[in-house]
Amino acid sequence: MRAYLPRDTTAIALGADQVAMALIAEANNRALDVELIRNGSRGMFAVEPLLEVASGDQRIAFGPLTAADVPSLLDALAGKASDHALYLGPVDELSWLASQQRLTFARAGEGDPVCLDTYRSLGGFAGLEKAIAMDSEQIVEQVIESGLRGRGGAAFPAGIKWRTVLEAPADKKYIVCNADEGDSGTFADRLLMESDPYQLIEGMIIAGLAVDADQGYIYLRSEYPLALEILNTAIENAGSAGYLGDDVCGSGKTFQLEVRVGAGAYICGEETSLLDSLEGKRGMVRAKPPLPAIEGLFGQPTVVNNVLTLAAASTVLAKGADYYRDFGSGRSRGTLTLQLAGNISQGGLVEIPIGATLREMIETDGGGTASGRPIRTIQVGGPLGAYLPESQWDTPLDYEAFAAAGAMLGHGGVVVFDDTVDMLAQARFAMEFCAEESCGKCTPCRIGSVRGVEVIDRIIARESPQQNTSLLHDLCDTMEQGSLCARGGLTPNPVRSALKYFPEDFA
After folding, report:
1. What percent of the chain lies above the pLDDT cut of 90?
2. Which of 26, 118, 180, 352 has a 20 to 30 Å separation from 300 between CA atoms?
3. Residue 263 has pLDDT above 90, yes or no
4. How far is CA 46 from CA 140, 184, 417, in A?
5. Contact indicator for 495, 472 with CB cutoff of 8 Å
6. Are 109 and 298 in contact (CB under 8 A)?
7. Number of other CB atoms surrounding residue 5 within 10 Å
8. Are 20 and 38 in contact (CB under 8 A)?
9. What are the C-alpha distances in Å from 344 to residues 98, 309, 340, 341, 358?
10. What kind and span of H or E run contains 337?
11. What are the residue boundaries of the structural domains of the chain, listed by start?
12. CA distance to 272, 302, 305, per residue, from 290 (Å)
């Protein structure tokens, strides 16, 4: 019997290792031949630990399992598997997956994440093979034509950034992957690195070929030790197989790659702070210009992209720009990776074509609140995203539509709150978060956030609430217009949305 059990952080936290040990022990007691493969997660966290058992050309899913469920599971597999209480059916037919359009996460959960043969058998490195046959300009043009935009928050066209680096005169250029995933409710970067690390590696090599860069760095947050282990193993395997090093796949091109671990500062998710940290300095925002594409790491032209952006580049090259561009709507092309979290019944990762609505995601894929109470608000885009009332849940999930609504998609974090949430407390949290995580370089962010907490505390204490609410509005304007980067400039988003849509909590 061949079985698959995830080894990503979430599955392990939910008891996957204990299930694995129980399965091996029970199989040995029964003299059963069980091949257990620790795969990556499919992102269906509501049913983790999820065991998949190979049956013909299908995999039959069971979950969420505990170690105590293993004996009855093996009994069911010896008879009629569908009789087991945790039987879910064929994995490919599960409604959670069947409703999605997975491009970036197409291979997640299919096999051992560090097995090169598995990656290649599932179409891996097809994009790199095509890129090697192209010149740099052709690779960049493919990315531009695909409409791929940065998946880290700003949604800047990836191909334009690549072309800027390509055209910048320099003897040394770099590819930097921003894997400092710090937004509330987000885990897509971690999940990809733990479930399909070679896709990120492939995307970074392609980026290196596209802009004539020979060195890449993955800046990984220290809170992801398992991702670090998996990435380092995958990089070593890729190097041994000739995908990295002085002669990438016999092309004569050089590309070296290593992981650098950050110390958990939220500000290092901002690209210039990240670059300072990579250089061994304190992570603080750099004034722009110059842009990192012109003067980035160690003063050299640098591509700085998010994990999902670089991973998507491998799909663009493998499938072609037209294929990728066929998904999405308007200027927002491709797929969107949403991470459903907070007070939600079925949390996990959803990858869909850009353009669906938030309501569809929450009601269909999320299954409503975990508490069973009505949803009051949904925050999209991390801790600096707006709190959206029900009147905005039908806004299409694309970058322009959200911007027009005064919100942002950011990294795709979706945090759900039921009707017990105190929006005044949430506004305070936004200011407190900014105060804690500010790099301290500019006054509007460093001081404004502290004063913001003080003003909200006065509102909570019912000290001149009207006067202090007016002062809070003015403070938000100052932070937005005067901060050097989005860390302070976006903090007003959740505060203003709470004030606008839930004024009763401030009265």
Report:
1. 85
2. 180
3. no
4. 39, 18, 17
5. yes
6. no
7. 23
8. yes
9. 20, 27, 7, 6, 13
10. strand 335-342
11. 2-98, 116-325, 328-418, 423-505
12. 10, 11, 17
One of 3.40.50.11540, 3.40.50.300, 3.40.190.10, 3.90.1150.10 is the CATH number of 116-325, namely 3.40.50.11540
DSSP three-state, residue 62:
strand
C-beta separation of 351 from 103 below 8 A: yes
- Can you tell me the distance from the alpha carbon of 354 to that of 398, in angstroms, rounded to the nearest whole number? 6
Residues contacting residue 506 through CB under 8 Å, at least 6 positions apart: 423, 424, 427, 459, 465, 469, 498, 499
Which architecture does CATH list for 2-98?
A: 3-Layer(aba) Sandwich (3.40)
Q: What is the pLDDT of residues 94-148, one digit of tens each?
A: 999 988 999 999 999 999 999 999 999 999 999 999 999 999 999 999 999 999 9
CATH number belonging to the domain at 328-418, selected among 3.10.20.600, 3.40.50.1370, 3.90.1740.10, 2.60.120.200: 3.10.20.600
Percent of residues in the chain assigned helix, strand, coil, to nearest 5: 45, 15, 35
| Identical fold between 2-98 and 423-505 | no
423-505, what's its fold? Answer: de novo design (two linked rop proteins) (1.20.1440)
SS3 assignment for 155-221:
CCEHHHHHHHHHHCCCCCCEEEEEECCCCCCCCHHHHHHHHCHHHHHHHHHHHHHHHCCCEEEEEEE
- What are the backbone angles phi and psi of residue 122, rounded to the nearest 5°? -100, 20
pLDDT tens, 411-426?
Answer: 899 999 999 999 999 9
Residue 462: its H or E element: none
How would you classify the pairing of strands 302-306 and 328-329? unpaired
